[in-house]
Amino acid sequence: VQLQASGGGLVQPGGSLRLSCAASRSIFSQNPLKWYRQFSGNEREYVAGITTGGTAVIADPVKGRFTISRDSAKNTVTLQMNNLKPEDTGVYYCSVRLYGVDYWGQGTLVTVSS
Protein backbone atom coordinates (compact mmCIF):
# COMPACT_ATOMS: atom_id res chain seq x y z
CA VAL A 1 0.00 0.00 0.00
CA GLN A 2 1.55 3.28 -1.09
CA LEU A 3 0.37 6.65 0.08
CA GLN A 4 2.40 9.60 -1.12
CA ALA A 5 1.98 12.76 0.95
CA SER A 6 3.27 16.15 -0.13
CA GLY A 7 2.80 19.85 0.41
CA GLY A 8 4.18 20.58 3.84
CA GLY A 9 6.43 23.48 4.64
CA LEU A 10 6.96 26.60 6.69
CA VAL A 11 4.18 29.16 6.88
CA GLN A 12 3.46 32.16 9.06
CA PRO A 13 0.50 32.19 11.44
CA GLY A 14 -2.67 32.97 9.54
CA GLY A 15 -1.28 31.50 6.35
CA SER A 16 -2.41 28.53 4.29
CA LEU A 17 -0.99 25.26 3.06
CA ARG A 18 -2.38 22.49 0.91
CA LEU A 19 -1.41 18.91 1.54
CA SER A 20 -1.95 16.17 -1.01
CA CYS A 21 -2.10 12.43 -0.61
CA ALA A 22 -1.79 10.32 -3.73
CA ALA A 23 -2.91 6.70 -3.69
CA SER A 24 -3.32 3.91 -6.17
CA ARG A 25 -6.59 3.91 -8.04
CA SER A 26 -7.91 0.84 -6.25
CA ILE A 27 -7.10 2.23 -2.82
CA PHE A 28 -8.53 5.62 -3.67
CA SER A 29 -11.75 4.40 -5.23
CA GLN A 30 -12.67 1.80 -2.61
CA ASN A 31 -11.69 3.30 0.74
CA PRO A 32 -12.06 6.36 2.91
CA LEU A 33 -8.82 8.27 3.28
CA LYS A 34 -7.81 10.21 6.34
CA TRP A 35 -5.28 12.74 7.57
CA TYR A 36 -3.66 12.57 10.96
CA ARG A 37 -1.01 14.70 12.58
CA GLN A 38 1.60 14.08 15.20
CA PHE A 39 3.13 16.59 17.54
CA SER A 40 6.53 15.91 19.00
CA GLY A 41 6.33 13.08 21.50
CA ASN A 42 2.59 12.67 21.20
CA GLU A 43 0.27 10.15 19.64
CA ARG A 44 -1.14 10.77 16.20
CA GLU A 45 -4.27 12.87 16.21
CA TYR A 46 -7.11 12.58 13.74
CA VAL A 47 -7.50 15.67 11.56
CA ALA A 48 -9.96 14.89 8.76
CA GLY A 49 -11.28 12.09 6.62
CA ILE A 50 -13.35 11.68 3.50
CA THR A 51 -15.42 8.76 2.29
CA THR A 52 -15.52 7.43 -1.24
CA GLY A 53 -18.80 9.29 -1.65
CA GLY A 54 -17.21 12.57 -0.65
CA THR A 55 -18.54 12.89 2.89
CA ALA A 56 -16.01 14.76 5.01
CA VAL A 57 -15.49 14.50 8.75
CA ILE A 58 -13.36 17.26 10.24
CA ALA A 59 -11.93 17.17 13.76
CA ASP A 60 -13.13 19.89 16.11
CA PRO A 61 -9.71 21.58 16.63
CA VAL A 62 -9.50 22.40 12.92
CA LYS A 63 -13.14 22.70 11.97
CA GLY A 64 -13.81 25.90 10.08
CA ARG A 65 -10.16 26.20 9.06
CA PHE A 66 -9.36 22.92 7.30
CA THR A 67 -11.25 21.25 4.48
CA ILE A 68 -10.72 17.91 2.76
CA SER A 69 -11.58 16.96 -0.78
CA ARG A 70 -11.09 14.19 -3.34
CA ASP A 71 -9.90 14.38 -6.93
CA SER A 72 -10.89 11.22 -8.75
CA ALA A 73 -8.95 12.16 -11.87
CA LYS A 74 -5.71 12.25 -9.86
CA ASN A 75 -6.53 9.66 -7.17
CA THR A 76 -5.63 12.32 -4.67
CA VAL A 77 -7.06 13.58 -1.40
CA THR A 78 -6.28 17.18 -0.53
CA LEU A 79 -6.23 18.80 2.88
CA GLN A 80 -6.61 22.56 2.56
CA MET A 81 -5.40 24.28 5.70
CA ASN A 82 -6.28 27.93 6.24
CA ASN A 83 -5.70 30.34 9.10
CA LEU A 84 -2.90 28.15 10.40
CA LYS A 85 -1.82 28.48 14.00
CA PRO A 86 1.46 27.60 15.70
CA GLU A 87 -0.32 24.72 17.43
CA ASP A 88 -0.96 23.17 14.02
CA THR A 89 2.77 22.49 13.72
CA GLY A 90 3.51 18.82 13.33
CA VAL A 91 4.00 15.96 10.93
CA TYR A 92 0.92 15.22 8.87
CA TYR A 93 0.19 11.71 7.65
CA CYS A 94 -2.37 10.34 5.27
CA SER A 95 -3.81 6.98 6.13
CA VAL A 96 -6.06 4.22 4.93
CA ARG A 97 -7.46 1.27 6.81
CA LEU A 98 -7.55 -2.04 4.99
CA TYR A 99 -8.96 -5.16 6.62
CA GLY A 100 -8.49 -3.67 10.04
CA VAL A 101 -4.91 -2.56 9.47
CA ASP A 102 -3.89 1.10 9.26
CA TYR A 103 -1.42 2.04 6.55
CA TRP A 104 0.46 5.34 6.61
CA GLY A 105 2.16 7.58 4.14
CA GLN A 106 5.63 8.92 4.89
CA GLY A 107 4.45 12.11 6.59
CA THR A 108 4.98 15.72 5.65
CA LEU A 109 6.16 18.39 8.07
CA VAL A 110 4.07 21.49 8.64
CA THR A 111 5.67 24.31 10.61
CA VAL A 112 3.67 27.37 11.55
CA SER A 113 5.94 30.06 12.86
CA SER A 114 6.72 33.73 12.47
Percent of sequence in beta strands: over 45%
Kindly name the structural category.
Answer: mainly beta
Mean pLDDT metric: 95
Low-pLDDT regions? none
Helical percentage: under 10%
Largest sheet: 7 strands, mixed
Give the helix tally. Answer: 1
Number of strands: 11
**What Rg is obtained from the alpha carbons, in whole angstroms?**
13 Å
Characterize the structure shown.
- With 114 residues, the chain is mainly beta.
- The chain has one helix and eleven strands, in the order βββαββββββββ.
- β7 and β8 (76-81) form a beta hairpin.
Summarize the structure in short.
This protein has 114 residues and is mainly β. The chain has 1 helix and 11 strands, in the order E-E-E-H-E-E-E-E-E-E-E-E. The protein has one helix spanning 25-30; strands at residues 3-6, 9-11, 17-23, 33-38, 44-50, 56-58, 66-71, 76-81, 90-98, 101-104, 108-112.
Keywords:
114 residues; mainly beta; 7-stranded mixed β-sheet; 4-stranded antiparallel β-sheet; 1 helix; 5% helix
Which secondary structure elements does this structure contain, and how are they paired or packed?
Layout: E1 3-6, E2 9-11, E3 17-23, H1 25-30, E4 33-38, E5 44-50, E6 56-58, E7 66-71, E8 76-81, E9 90-98, E10 101-104, E11 108-112
Parallel strand pairs: 2-11
Antiparallel strand pairs: 1-3, 3-8, 4-5, 4-9, 5-6, 7-8, 9-10, 9-11
